[in-house]
Amino acid sequence: MYLDNVNTLSSSKIKYLQSNHNKIAYPILKDMFEKAISEHGLSNEHDELLDLTAMILIKTHNDKTILPTIIDMIFFRNREGLFTHDLIWAFFQAKDPYSLMLIANYLDSDDENDVKLANKLLDFVPSSDMTRSDGGKQHKAFFYWLKENYHYLYFTGEGFQRTSNPIPYIVALDAKYLCKQVSLYTGKPLIPFTKKETALLVYFNNLDENSKLLLSGCSLRIHHQNMHSWKSWINHSITKQMRIAKARLKD
Amino acid sequence: MIIISSNIVKIDTFINEYKPNDIEKDILNKMDLSKEQYEYDSLKQLQFELKLRNNIVIASKKLNDGDMSFKTFRKSICNLDYWDRTDNGGFILKDGIAPSVAINDISINSSKYGTECATAMIIIYYQALLNIFKDKFFNNLFPKIHLMNWHYIDDNLEDVGYIKKRSDYLPGDRRYFSNPDVDPVTPEWQGENVIDLDNKIFFGHGIGIGNSDEIISELNKFRIEEAKTSAYLLDSAARPDFKHLADIYYKSLSSPSN
């Protein structure tokens, strides 16, 4: 059933969608979303319909193609003081770390409101370079952080309903230390840790957070540079690994 | 364990100031038996925390007894005599209105208000503080109030936005039930902010008062078809900075202008 047949009023479409969204085919929903974009921001009710459609497309149909449009809508509404809460939630529900670059693109916007919102949404990124005032450098820092950590990120589900500083993605430092990709949904390694790796993690997991950050970052860099060197490094005692990592940091 | 001015305190020296069923008494016992060190600069600071925690519980029950409805941010309503509603669904104190009067109005004219669980939590904190502070001091401390969610918290209350794991959970804590498999058409049920009322009972706006099983059961009604994950209570809590609020409160009492 095509929704235009229901009633032309947004309110009727909203009610219909809320009750019947499981029966509506993906192409119809997508078409509906695309047609509605042209009137975005013109009325609260119309925006509600857009948000609802977006949430269904993302959460039920796993549609990530609409994310660039969604992020532009969020920043537009933020500038206009309009309702952003549900769209921000929907955006993160896509569980797509690459899409975070869409937010990062606003870090060096000319509009102060864009920059503030981009910083707020990416506040969870533990990179010291992200605290710089230069938006261009922040953008670059975020790009490198994402590139380095992409395979080790997992989704937590945290949002602004729960906390003022949500951490939607966490880096699985233990997996990064062993250079083993994790499931985005569980944070567990895609290939389970071997007995030897589990034994290595006993020492690693007893370290403080800063040491874990240092060691996991160093491990990944050595791994990328030379597998033979990495195999040698990972077999050193944790004390020696730390010593090498600190020395590399000074170089 | 409770430590005041670097000394371990025996609670039997002052616990009898509270009646047998007082929430303060229960909190003191929990703190005393805990492995966590609850450190204070003075007995007054501790007593303030107990008083505020108790008042957070009282304010929660009062809000539950009132007629404030559950509405999404998009459809939120407020008494426009005292508040301006923002396009984002929040409420901003109207110019020329005393903050204490506007906060009290939420109880007096509760049927004129409707919002989500996060805003209800913020309202509870303000009402609890208003129960303790004199109106004049309250109005000076919070001259501008923006009620919505954790985005817009006053600096003096910012800690209530940070939820983290605790050694103990005490009455007056803000807890959170997460609902990861929520139906996308009801994002307002992605979770529920609640206040711990003691004895494993919680208040969450829109659900009411109940134990964790009851709140989980309610949230589970709003999941996607064939959901695999139940809603659950997070092992974490948010708390105001009790010591900071105590310090400014006692400072105000010694100031003749307040």
In short:
The complex is a heterodimer of chains A (251) and B (258). Chain A has helices at 10-20, 26-37, 44-59, 67-80, 85-93, 100-104, 112-121, 135-149, 173-177, 195-205, 209-225, 227-234, 238-250; strands spanning 153-155, 169-171. Chain A is an all-alpha fold.
Structural overview:
The complex is a heterodimer of chains A (251) and B (258). Chain A is mostly helical and 251 residues long. Helix content of chain A is 58%, strand content 2%. Among the domains of chain A are: 1-94; 193-251, no CATH class. Helices cover 34% and strands 17% of the residues of chain B. In chain B, 39% of the residues are buried. Chain B has a 5-stranded antiparallel β-sheet with strand order 12-11-10-9-13, sandwiched between helices. A 3-stranded mixed β-sheet of chain B has the order 2-1-3, covered by helices on one side. At the A-B interface, helix 3 and helix 5 of A face loops of B.
Strand order across the biggest sheet of chain B? Answer: 12-11-10-9-13
Number of separate helices of chain B: 7
Helix content of chain B: 25-40%
Taken in chain order, the helices and strands of chain A follow as HHHHHHHHEEHHHHH
Q: Compute the gyration radius of chain B: what is it? A: 19 Å
Shape of chain B: globular
Outline the low-pLDDT stretches of chain B: none
Given the helix and strand composition of chain B, which structural class is it? alpha+beta
Largest sheet of chain B: 5 strands, antiparallel
Number of strands of chain A: 2
Strand percentage of chain B lies at 15-25%
Distance between the termini of chain A: 65 Å
Q: How many structural domains of chain B? A: 2
How would you characterize the largest beta sheet of chain A? 2 strands, antiparallel
Number of helices of chain A: 13
State the total count of DSSP E strands of chain B: 13
Q: Any low-confidence stretches of chain A, pLDDT <50, length ≥5? A: none
Q: Report the helical percentage of chain A.
A: 55-70%
